[in-house]
Write a structure and sequence with these properties.
The complex is a heterodimer of chains A (about 325) and B (about 375). Chain A is an alpha/beta fold. Chain A folds into 2 domains: about 180 residues, Thiamin diphosphate (ThDP)-binding fold, Pyr/PP domains (Rossmann fold); about 130 residues, 3-Layer(aba) Sandwich (Rossmann fold). In chain B, the strands form 2 sheets. Chain B has a 5-stranded parallel sheet with strand order 1-2-3-7-6, with helices on both faces. The radius of gyration of chain B is 22 Å and the shape is globular. Classes of the chains: A alpha/beta (about 325), B alpha/beta (about 375). Chains A and B meet through α11 and α12 of A and α5 and α15 of B.
Chain lengths: ~325, ~375
């Protein structure tokens, strides 16, 4: 059955399905109960599943993740909501030093099936700490997996797949796209969680991106078509582990690669993608891999964010730079 | 599986109150408001202007001039009463709702809305006003306050007996923040360092939607005892009580008597922010119950009974109206940020990498100058 719904609703439906499928699944976070989360992603879930499965926690992110770890020892599968990207750092110690390491330290005896949901990225005119892109900080942490859906169908399925996984997963949600609607096929066979996907086929250059920037890159590709350029757009979906086979295959055809993300350039996901593409496709590349990213500064005041964030013009300029090389 | 959830927070610590909701002065065995009626008129003026700043900013958000506003409606007495207990050499570390405290620290109201308008991330020089930049990350600044207080001790600015020299720190946070590890750590650092810091918790009953009973099962003021300092609960809607208790706490700190925790019991009459809808999580009758305890009405009732000339109130109304217009004009005149300039402020000295990014940005932007947006 296919139904059109926004990403936030698709996540809600996916969480509902996960709560129904496994009574060990719990939702924990700030304001996830009667309020339904500040983005309404957990709307109605406490009413239907009760306060002991959908829990408003004290206002303490380290506490949320730390107690979620303890619950996994009892066989629970906590899905924790971090209210905004910039509020995850009090929990960083628990995530990096505990969540990421327990399976490794115990040689597999301890499984930590926690999903840490983080609405991330800018573009919503928010105050500071509400527009950040910390995904690379988790992707570079050995022992954590990181995924980022870009559309409603993926949101519905990927949240369920993440919850079903026995590994800890940081689940980055494209905040500014929460209300963008798309078809969700609730009966389809979902794509594997650890797979990147070609969103648009093209021949002249490959745009590699994820999360909120997928829509922007698709818009850039449409704009480029008017200039007679045919761009391929690849949605990484999984940031750790990376699935770069489709990227390599694409770049071997197009000869030009442009990585796009909101996070700062320095040691961002783009740096890893550029290195790997260079390693694998060196003789196919007709230009160095280009990166279109946020600048290496703290997220600016929101009235400067349109200039800070990658937009269609900057992406197409990077394509031109690559093609003119 | 069922987890018993506490519905009520125990209420076994009495509130310090010096002015009842009906506007009657009452005595307390320990805490006294020493000012005369002229001083109470000054506090009343602060309350009215603080509310005007807040309601004007709220209106500015509704008109799209600012992106977000966290209203302080109902919390004016807690903020003005405590803020006016500070001396110029004292320092305040605040969260994001302390508009009334900012007023008492002489911060131009137009500066308060810059962050919410998205044109800047700061707004004032903390040293100039004795008030730190607002902290949106819950509870983080409570540690900063403690560190600042430790510095006061190291610098011999505590316990000298010189009223011009001895200084203290106050830090504002909410009931939600009381759950944060940073706040617990701040209590401990303050206690073991005997730091001259006053922890001023505005317990406004909700952390966005989450009620106090999900943060604590005992009054927040009780937390202090476990760390070895005193906790006092005060009627947070009583400006005289807030002033009296904070004055005593700050003096204890300045004298070298160490930290104190004040829990000001109040109520957030409005939404958490303009993005929030409180009707989803709290009942109207609860709001009405608190409306009857309004922090401004009770001072007005007292001043009326004390024979304050009506002209005082008429003049104040006019001043508040001017304040509103001034804030509106200041807000609209705030310049938009220039991203190119922001590259200069990441570090004390520009790095080569940032200089290159800045130049690339300026060159890129230059292509589009003069072309229609």
């Amino acid at each position: 059955m296919s139904e059109k719904m926004p990403i936030a609703k698709a996540l809600n439906a996916g969480l509902r399905a996960a709560l129904e499928a496994d009574e060990k699944v719990l939702i924990m976070g700030e304001d996830v109960g009667p309020l339904g989360g500040v983005f309404r992603v957990t709307d109605g879930l406490q009413k239907d599943f009760g306060e002991s499965r959908v829990m408003d926690t004290p206002l303490a992110e380290s506490g949320i993740v730390g107690t979620a770890i303890g619950l996994t020892y009892r066989g629970y599968r906590p899905v924790v909501e971090i209210q905004f990207d910039g509020f995850v750092y009090p929990a960083y110690d628990q995530i990096v030093s505990q969540v990421a390491k327990l399976h490794f330290r115990s040689l597999g005896d301890v499984k930590v099936p926690i999903v840490i949901r983080i609405p991330f990225g800018g573009g919503i005119g928010a105050v500071e700490h509400h527009s950040e892109s910390p995904e690379a900080q988790f992707a570079m942490t050995a022992g954590l997996k990181v995924v980022a859906p870009s559309n409603a169908h993926d949101a519905y399925w990927m949240i369920q797949q993440a919850i079903a996984s026995d590994d800890p997963i940081v689940f980055m949600e494209p905040k500014r796209r929460y209300w963008e609607a798309g078809e969700v096929d609730t009966e389809a066979e979902p794509a594997p969680l650890w797979e990147s996907q070609v969103r648009r086929s093209g021949t002249d250059a490959t745009l590699i991106t994820y999360g909120p920037m997928v829509t922007t890159c698709l818009q850039a590709a449409e704009a480029a078509r008017e200039d007679g350029l045919d761009l391929e757009v690849i949605d990484l979906r999984t940031l750790s582990p990376l699935d770069l086979d489709p990227v390599h295959e694409s770049v071997r055809r197009t000869g030009h690669a442009v990585v796009v993300h909101e996070a700062a350039r320095n040691l961002g996901i783009g740096a890893e993608v550029a290195a790997r593409v260079t390693e694998e496709c060196f003789y196919s590349l007709e230009a160095p891999v280009q990166r279109v990213t946020g600048y290496d500064m703290p997220y600016p005041p929101s009235r400067a964010e349109d200039e800070f964030l990658p937009g269609i013009d900057r992406i197409l300029d990077a394509v031109d730079t690559a093609r003119a090389f | 599986m069922s987890a018993p959830m506490p519905e009520q927070v125990s209420d076994d610590l009495p509130l310090v109150q010096l002015l009842t909701p009906a506007g009657e002065r009452v005595e307390h065995p320990e805490f006294h408001y020493d000012g005369d009626d002229a001083s109470i008129r000054d506090l009343y003026r602060d309350l009215v202007l603080a509310r005007r700043i807040d309601t004007e900013a709220y209106a500015l958000q509704r008109h799209g001039e600012i992106g977000l506003w966290p209203p302080a409606l109902g919390q004016e007495a807690a903020q003005v009463g405590s803020g006016r207990a500070l001396r110029p050499q004292d320092f305040a570390f605040v969260s994001y709702r302390e508009h009334g405290v900012a007023w008492t620290r002489g911060i131009e109201p137009g500066k308060l809305v810059g962050l919410y308008r998205g044109v800047e991330l700061g707004g004032w020089d903390p040293a100039e006003h004795g008030m730190g930049l607002i902290s949106i990350v819950i509870g983080a600044h409570v540690l900063h306050a403690t560190g600042y207080a430790m510095g006061l001790t190291f610098d011999g600015a505590v316990g000298t007996g010189d009223p011009e020299r001895d200084a203290a720190v106050i830090t504002y946070f909410g009931d939600g923040a009381s759950s944060q590890g940073d706040v617990a750590e701040a209590f401990d650092f303050a206690a073991v360092n005997h730091a001259p810091v006053v922890f001023f918790c505005q317990n406004n009953q909700y952390a966005i939607s989450v009620p106090l009973s999900r943060q604590t099962v005992v009054p927040i003021a009780h937390r202090a005892a476990g760390y070895g300092f005193r906790g006092v609960r005060v009627d947070g809607n009583d400006v005289l009580a807030c002033h009296a208790v904070t004055t005593a706490a700050l003096q204890q700190a300045r004298d070298g008597g160490g930290p104190m925790l004040i829990e000001a019991v109040t109520y957030r009459m409005g939404a958490h922010t303009t993005s929030d809808d409180p009707s989803r999580y709290r009942a109207d009758d609860e709001v009405e119950e608190w409306r009857a305890k309004d922090p401004i009405d009770r001072v007005r009732a007292y001043l009326d009974s004390a024979g304050t000339p009506p002209q005082f109130f008429t003049d104040l109304d006019a001043e508040a109206e001017e304040m509103g217009e001034h804030l509106r004009a200041m807000c609209q005149a705030l310049p938009n940020p220039d991203l190119a300039e922001l590259f200069d402020h990441v570090f004390t000295e520009q790095t080569d990498e940032l200089r290159e990014q800045q130049a690339a940005y300026v060159a890129w932007r230059g292509q589009y100058e003069g072309s229609p947006a």
